Amino acid sequence: MANKVAKPDLSFWQIWNLSFGFLGVQFGFALQNGNVSRILQALGADVHDLGYFWLAAPIAGIIIQPIIGGASDSTWTKLGRRVPFILGGAIAATLAMFLMPNSEFFVALMPPMLFGATMLLIMDASFNITFQPFRALVGDMVNDKQRDLGYSVQSFLINTGAVVGSALPFILTMIGVNNEPAEGQKVADSVVWSFYIGGATLMITVLWTVLRTKEYPPEEYAEYNNIDLEAQKAEKEQQAKDGGNAIANFIKTLISSPKVMFQLAAVQLCSWVAFYFMWVYSTPAIAQHIWHTAPGDVTSAAYNDAGNWVGLMFAMYSFAAAIFSVLMPSLIKATNRKTVYASALILGGLGLLSIGMIQDKYLLFVSMAGVGIAWAAILAMPFSILSENLPAEKMGIYMGIFNVTIAGPQIFAGLFGGTIASNFFDGNAVGLLTMAGVILIIGAFCVGIISDNKDKKLEQ
Q1: 3-state DSSP: the chain helix, strand, coil percent, rounded to 5?
Q2: Which of 315, 380, 388, 418 has the greatest number of CB atoms lying within 10 Å of its CB?
Q3: Which residues form the Major facilitator superfamily (MFS) profile domain (predicted)?
Q4: What are phi and psi for residue 69, nearest 5 degrees?
Q5: Residue closest to 157 by CA, chosen among 66, 65, 30
Q6: Is residue 264 pLDDT above 70, yes or no?
Q7: Would you say residue 3 has pLDDT above 60?
Q8: Which H/E stretch holds residue 148?
Q9: Where are the alpha helices (DSSP H) in 5-146?
Q10: Phi, psi at residue 325, to the nearest 5°?
């Protein structure tokens, strides 16, 4: 077969359009991260059980992303290859966002906390349906020369959406929206309206990507990636003739995974355990540590003020991540990906470690700036490194399998976070944030085992 034809350079705005919908998806995801614990506690969940509710996201990811990845690899429609899944996930996520903060009004269907947990599961499943195709879409469309730029732009858009989503409850409170539940309500209007705005933003931005992105048709994609369509068709026909053993085919694909995928897994383990602890336990930790609330207090003005402040902290780390995303391509050119990746994780670990030592709520923004630098690297570096080592015809399914390295650590953290807090930190949630900082620094040292051959390619 002839050598593959190089993919054309895309304009900056074409690369921007590829990931613009991710801005809205992350807007919604940031609202979930900053407010779901707050909503569930208002509906009656105990702080030590919060981690179990949050398990919905990683479990949904492990099940859904490989399925969606494999399906999108072989899906070609008028809308494209990845775009149909992005659009479908966005519609479902928007509906869940509209319903979750109103869980108490569906008491005729099921208890409010159960309804809220169900909406969280649907929201998480829907976000996961959109995440994987967005990441694979960049890998599909950009050439090797623009790969770091493509994932850096995606990281910038993700974090820009997260800044607004995280800060929105605080912003609405500042303009007069009630930040305490009104009589007869469990969830504050500032949170309810934030979810409405977030859902609408999600749909608008995803529609922008859907309408502005034209994916390569099968023949052109095959030409760019040196894929033999006839051989691929014959392989599928043989699999169907052999009974289409999906499990055997999946195991075969898993065994043939590139070595770098397993090397990245060690770093991913540390990264996602650390961030899971931060997302789940920041609100009770900051409420207890800075506002000095009692452990069972989930409705007072102080607790809700702490919840808004955590939203601002999350906005700060997302803002820092957005800025660092712009700088990453230049830093990579000046050094290399592994140096930038490891340094970013160390700064994030130091940021989390410092939270337990700080009493001034404004100094927490300095801590979160370091966390944001780590987050930018986590969103871009693994996918940029991995996508260079994946066969183009299986980009989607391998990206889906790789999600196990994101979801698995979160499941571990969700199962054992509450136990760790009770047994090692006397129920003090800020102890888990300190532990998260140590874990993230360990992840920085694990970057050293990754085989990144990009520098060798550039030298040749």
Answers
A1: 80, 0, 20
A2: 380
A3: 260-460
A4: -60, -50
A5: 30
A6: yes
A7: no
A8: helix 147-174
A9: 12-42, 50-53, 56-73, 83-99, 112-141
A10: -60, -35
**Residues 352 and 367: beta-carbon distance below 8 Å:** yes
Which amino acid would we find at residue 155? Answer: S
Write out the two tokens for 333.
Answer: 């050119």
Neighbouring C-beta atoms of residue 29, cutoff 10 Å = 25
- CA dist 403 and 139 (Å) reads 15
* Residue-wise pLDDT tens digits, 422-458: 677 666 778 889 999 999 999 999 999 998 665 444 4
Task: Give the span between the Cα atoms of 46 and 28, in whole angstroms.
Answer: 24
- pLDDT on residue 234: 61
The CA distance from 92 to 112, in Å, is: 20
Phi-psi region of 65 (alpha: psi -120 to 50; beta: other; left: phi over 0): alpha
Half-sphere exposure of 357 (CA within 13 A, CB side): 9
Residues 6+ apart with CB under 8 A from 16: 153, 157
- State phi, psi for 398 to the nearest 5 degrees: -70, -35
Coil/strand/helix, residue 368? helix
Let me know if 200 is exposed, middle or buried by CB neighbors in 10 A (0-12, 13-18, 19+): middle
CA dihedral 387, 390, 396, 397 (to 10 degrees): -130
pLDDT number for residue 239: 56
pLDDT of 340-351, one tens digit each? 999 999 999 999
Residues 188-225: tens digit of each pLDDT = 888 889 999 999 999 999 999 999 988 888 888 888 87
**Which pair of structure tokens corresponds to residue 31?**
């609202």
Query: 38-42, 134-138, 249-253: which has the highest mean pLDDT?
Result: 134-138
Q: Residues 364, 312, 348, CA angle at the centre, nearest 5°?
A: 50
414, two tokens: 């969700």
> Closest Cα to residue 349, out of 439, 288, 273?
439
Helix (H, G, I), strand (E, B) or coil at 175: coil
The alpha carbon of 176 is separated from its chain's Cα centroid by a whole number of angstroms, namely 31
The model's confidence at residue 186, banded by pLDDT at 50, 70 and 90, is confident
- How far is it, in rounded angstroms, from Cα 185 to Cα 131? 33
Plot region of 426 (φ>0 → left; ψ -120 to 50 → alpha; else → beta) = left
DSSP annotation string for 176-202: T---SPPTT-SS-HHHHHHHHHHHHHH
pTM here is 0.71
Q: What values do phi and psi take at 239, rounded to 5?
A: -60, -40
